[in-house]
Structure formats: C-alpha cells, structure tokens
Specification:
611 residues; Rossmann fold; seven-stranded parallel beta sheet; 15 strands; 40% helix; signal
Length: 611
C-alpha cells in the first residue's frame, strides 16, 4: 500500500484478512435466525472492508449476459423513488402565477436522465404500502393493498386511482428503479411483490431491469430508537420523546383537511385521520396525543425503518424474504467519509464540512448512541458501536445489503470512470459502491445543500465566494483543531468522571474497554488519520483495473501521458529526486501497468530506506 500523506510503503499478506478477531456469535444470534459472520468481521477490525463470504459470491456464468444501462432519450425507462419526506420540487407560490423553486430533490439525477418518471408514494407509509402505491402509479388502476394485509393492520383496502405512467409494463418492457434512502428499500420490496405475484396479474421480478439504491437502510437504523421508539416493541413510542411529538404533529396535520392537502402525507385514504366533522375518526384529543391505528398497529415507517423491521425482511419466513432476481442488476451506493472516530472513546463525530452541516447534530448522537446490553443481544444482535460510523443520518453498517443477498464485489469509487452505471454489469448480485465524494458518481454528484436555490444565489455573490474559498482552503486546518479540541474535552470528562464516579462517564469508560477488547489493533496502531479509508476488495480491484486498461487502450493521448510519466519517474528514482509532484503520477500511472508498478515500488522503497 502506498500512502501519499505519510510517505510509506507497506506490503499486505494474502492471509491478512484471515486473522480477523471475531465476536462470539452467541451474544446476538438466535437459534432460528442466521445473522452473517460478515457483521463479525466488519465489527472486529476497524478500517476493514466487510469480508464477502465465498459462498455468497456469484461466479460469472457464460450463459449470463452482462447488462448495460441506457440513459439516452430512447433508452431505458427510469422511475425515481423518494425516501422519507421525499418530494419532487419544493416550491413557494409567488404573485402573478409564478413560483420559486426552493429545492429540487432529484436535480442531480435529472441532469443525466431525460424525463424520468418521479413517483410519489406515501412519505410516511410502510414499505408494503409504498411499494403497492408505486406499482399502481406505474401500471395504473386503483390501489389495492391486499385483503389480508388490510385486515391485519386495520386500514382501508383500496386507495387512490392512478392513470398509470406505463400501462404496458411487463417483463418484456422492464424499468429501472432508482431509490434514495427509504425509497431504495421501497423499490426492492416492489420487486419482491412482483416476484411473488402479489398483484395477481402474472407479474415477475424480470419487470425490473435494475435497482439502483443510494444510502439505503437495508439493515435498518438505530435512529428511531434514539428518537423514542421502544426497542423490542416494534411500534411503542415513548410518550415523552421527539418521536411522540412528531407523531402528534402528523396527526394534527391530518386532522385538518386543508393542511393535509398542503403537506400531502397521503394518510387519510387509508386511516381516516380527518376530524369527525369531516367524516374522519379523530377527535382533537386523539390527534394531539397521536392515538390512532396508524400509530398503534405498526404499519408505518417506524417499524420498517428500525433494525427489527429490516430484519423481518431478510430473516423471517422464507415466503417473506426478498431474493435477488438473476436477470436484474443491483447497484448499492454506500456513503462514507462523513464522520471520524475519536481515539479517546471510540465515538464518531461529524466531520467539519459544510455538506455535513444539516445533519451534524443527528450524526453526533448516532455516533455515540449506546443501547443496553439486553437490547444489543436481542434487538441489534451486535454491539452498539457497529452502528456508530454514519453518513449523517444512517450508519455505514445499515447500508450493507441484507445478509441473505449475494454481493458481486466491493468498489471504492475515486472517479466517475469507475462508476458501475456506465459499464456492463453481471445481473443477480450486488455491486457495493463506497462513496466518499459524491462528485465521483454519475447520478448523485450534487450534495443536498447545493440544490437549494437560496444557497446557489448566495454563492454567486463575490463576498460569499471569497468566504467559501477561504473555508475550503483552510478546511484541513480547521478540522485538525476541531478534532483535537473534541478529544481534549473527552479526556477531561472521562477524567472527571473517574474521580467523581459519575455514572454517565462510567458508561464512556465502558465504551473504551469494549472497543479495545473488540479491536485491539486499532488502539495499538492508532494513526493521525481518524477517518476510515476503505479499499476495494480483490474482485473490485480487478474490475477497476480492467476498466482502466480499456480506457487507457482506447485513448492514445492518455497512454502517451502515462508512458511519459513512468519514464519521468524512472529517471527521478534513479537520480534520487523525490518530491510530492513525482509521487502523484506514481500512484496513477503505475497502477495501470502492474509490471511497471512492481519495479517502481521496489526501487522507490529501496531509495527511501537509503534516505
């Protein structure tokens, strides 16, 4: 491994990953449920990529044809599925019939895909209800949630009637689903309903050509528990919590019909949450206290968003599990690099960047949310610390595909060239794409903040431009002081707690002991780099190398550039000239030509020893 920042070269043993310490599985595994050793391996070594079990890999078959997505106007049909509180555009009406677009949820995807269909399932509904609504929005007809499902959760069986975006939707005319967050799991569940013929129209999983997910809660999130959901109850909410306050707000909106139309929560069709004067079932008191079938029966976003709800989709009965379709392409974008790990407590803190500002508070609490031992054993089935590293609102572990689904390869994307959506892919398994910088992706290259028209207008001002350039130029210095300041306060608090035997700090000390016992290598080999840097697995590296070779062979100018760079580096190594400008081409150029890479690295390492 070659490090530009520290000028070091190390070799990696082929059997290095086999020495991963494991956590006893009996601490969090039930006899009737399979929980992956992948979690143990991810939990055991800080900074390691999730190790893919060989039994879960798909071997390329000569009969399987690779699939290429077509973004042209006459190409594939794309359907966009928003997440929680998802929308198309947020507009404010202005005098004269005009409107001001405050934010466009899909502006990044719209830059690549011409005229996609933007769906609008219930922002707060369950995954089942949202998937059913998504189906009828595409196919057309009156929404039918299913007789058994409606009776089980006591809501209306029928819903809104849609004309249908694609009435001729069938296996010979498939679509591509793109989901963000909660919308990603909705898209996957729709394919599950299609494959089990839930709609009774001879549907098939082949009606979906590809599923592209971004920051998806495949394995659930601990955020609902922090907000007030009682762990182990699935749908009981603490009456003195933020979540209870939010549910009351939702019920009050639905109580007044005019407000419900403004916010478009789409709950009254199923639950009749309007006031009794308007034909609903709510009194003003039940609205304020959030007492309704929507809140009590568990057919809502709280259950499916939690770790328990996610586990029911991959560790329940066989008929309820979603299995990947062998003819469908799956791409999973995992957002990383938004938090850093403290060397004092092992907690995660949000990074000091402007794109993390909207979610910094949530990220801070998620990065150190400690649940009781009993909850860890029976609900999380692992330690709380495995959910600490997050992207602002969702942990990195939560974004891993379900354990019962196969993974083709793990790719750490460093430039748009390696984004899988632009290449032919093998169907039937996940392509895990780790994303630290969204600008390296093809479809999701804009952070949420940049979509705000107010921010765009401010950045056009010369004063704000200079401030932005100053902050960007000095961001490393600011983050350096910020990290050491937070760790200083942590040391003081832990020291004060040990002297005064404060219970709150005893829990912090316990966290430190737990982290060191699970991952001794991290505490012993701690470096100044507190942000986890991932690398592609073997299959991902080979795939990236193949893409690089094809790109290099098809570009004579690029080939000439790298040949000149290698010659220049050879001369620099022979003459003992070592500088930062020479190191950059070494990393890029030599990586494309393995034979040259080996000789250059050997010469360069010998030269460093001499110096």
């Amino acid at each position: 491994m070659f490090s530009l920042g520290q000028f070091r070269i190390t070799s990696k043993s082929p059997n290095q990953n086999n020495n991963t310490p494991s956590v006893p599985t009996h601490l969090y595994q039930d006899d009737d449920e399979i929980y992956p050793t992948e979690v143990d391996q991810y939990n055991g070594v800080y900074g390691a990529m999730p190790v893919v079990d060989n039994s879960m890999l798909i071997e390329p078959s000569p009969t399987i044809k690779e699939v290429l997505l077509n973004f042209e106007s006459e190409g594939d049909t794309f359907v966009l599925v928003p997440g929680l509180f998802g929308f198309n555009t947020l507009e404010i009406p202005l005098p004269g019939g005009k409107s001001w677009v405050v934010n466009d949820y899909w502006s990044d995807v719209k830059d690549i895909i011409e005229d996609p269909f933007i769906s609008s399932p219930s922002p707060l509904g369950s995954i089942h209800d949202r998937a059913v609504e998504l189906y009828y929005q595409i196919k057309g007809g009156q929404v039918d949630y299913g007789l058994q499902h409606s009776h089980q959760f006591c809501h209306n069986q029928s819903g809104t009637t849609y004309e249908g975006f694609m009435p001729l939707w069938n296996p010979d005319n498939p679509i591509v689903l793109i989901g963000k967050g909660y919308g990603a799991t909705t898209a996957l569940y729709l394919q599950h309903l299609l494959s089990t013929n839930f709609f009774g129209q001879h549907t098939s999983g082949r009606m979906i050509k590809a599923v592209i997910t971004f920051s998806a809660p495949h394995r659930g999130s601990t955020l609902p528990y922090w907000l007030g959901l009682e762990a182990g109850s699935k749908c009981i909410v603490d009456p003195f919590s933020l979540l209870q306050l939010f549910l009351s707000f939702i019920h009050i909106i639905c109580y007044f019909a005019c407000w419900e139309q403004l916010f478009s929560l789409q709950l009254n069709d199923k639950w009749n949450l309007r006031s009794r004067k308007e034909g609903g079932e709510q009194s003003i008191w039940s609205a304020i206290s959030a007492r309704s079938r929507f809140a009590y029966f568990g057919d809502n976003f709280l259950v499916d968003w939690s770790v328990e709800g996610a586990r029911m989709r991959y560790a329940g009965e066989e008929k309820d599990k979603h299995h990947l379709d062998p003819d469908c392409v799956y791409i999973n974008y995992i957002t990383t690099g938004s938090s850093w790990r403290s060397k004092v407590t092992g907690h995660y803190w949000p990074r000091l960047t402007w794109r993390n500002l909207p979610t910094s508070i949530i990220s801070k609490f998620l990065g150190q949310y400690k649940m009781t031992t009993d909850v860890e054993q029976h609900v999380l089935r692992t330690s709380s610390s495995t959910f600490w590293e997050n992207d602002g609102t969702l942990s990195i572990l939560s974004q891993q595909p379900p354990p019962n689904q196969r993974v083709q390869m793990n790719i750490v994307i460093t430039e748009k060239l390696f984004d899988p959506v632009d290449h032919e892919l093998t169907p039937g398994a996940w392509y895990n794409v780790y994303v630290e910088d969204r600008s390296n992706t093809v479809l999701f290259d804009k952070p949420f903040f940049i979509n705000l028209s107010l921010i765009e207008g401010m950045m056009e001002n010369s004063t704000f431009k200079r401030i932005g350039e100053f902050l960007s130029y000095n961001s490393d210095h600011f983050e350096h002081y910020y990290i050491h300041l937070m760790e200083f306060f942590e040391r003081q608090l832990c020291g004060l707690g040990s002297r005064l035997t404060i219970k709150g700090c005893e829990s912090s000390v316990a966290d430190i002991e737990y982290v060191t016992s699970v991952s001794n290598s991290y505490m012993i080999n701690a470096t100044t780099d507190r942000v986890e840097r991932r690398t592609s697995d073997k299959a991902g590296e080979e795939w990236c190398r193949r893409i690089s070779t094809i790109e290099l062979m098809n570009s004579p100018s690029r080939m000439l550039y790298y040949i000149n760079s290698i010659q220049k580096l050879n001369a620099a190594v022979e003459n003992g000239v070592v500088g930062s400008q020479d190191l950059i081409p070494l990393k890029d150029a030599a990586s494309f030509i393995p034979s040259v890479q080996e000789s250059l690295v050997l010469k360069f390492s010998v030269r460093l020893v001499e110096i």
